[in-house]
Design brief:
WH_DNA-bd_sf, WH-like_DNA-bd_sf, 17% strand, RPA_C, Arc Repressor Mutant, subunit A, alpha+beta, 42% helix, Replication protein A C-terminal domain-containing protein, 5 helices
Amino acid sequence: YVSVFGAVRTAPEVHFAVAGMSMVQSADEVSYHMIEAGYAALKLRKGRTEPVTPAPKKQAAEEALLSPPKVTAAAVEAPAPAETKERLSGSGLKKAVLKYLKKEGEGRAEGLSLAAVCKHAEATPADDVAAALQKLVEAGEAYTTIDEEHFLPL
């Protein structure tokens, strides 16, 4: 027998991604796991219960003692400056690309094209974006779909 741990992933199809595996040393490990799994199932079925003595609501009492806010002239806010795209690199670029893949790739079976990802990170050179995507694929955080230039996150 072996003991494995990992995570359930739903893309590209439902599967269990094993992160580690070891040999079971004794039958006690199997028994302990069965007890632990049963206990976790019971806790999930029971749900959350409210504490017997709830915490007092101090904030409402403090607000009652305060005087009402004084009326002041409304300050005119300056319009927000247009966002300027900055050049990303390294882990910041990988995080931004992965976030974009998750946001825009949802519901697209074909994934996002390399050109679309490059357009999103317009201040960053296309070679750097392609390298970041390749690193995400190698790390198992993204995969190619219909060809080598379409990607989806895992």
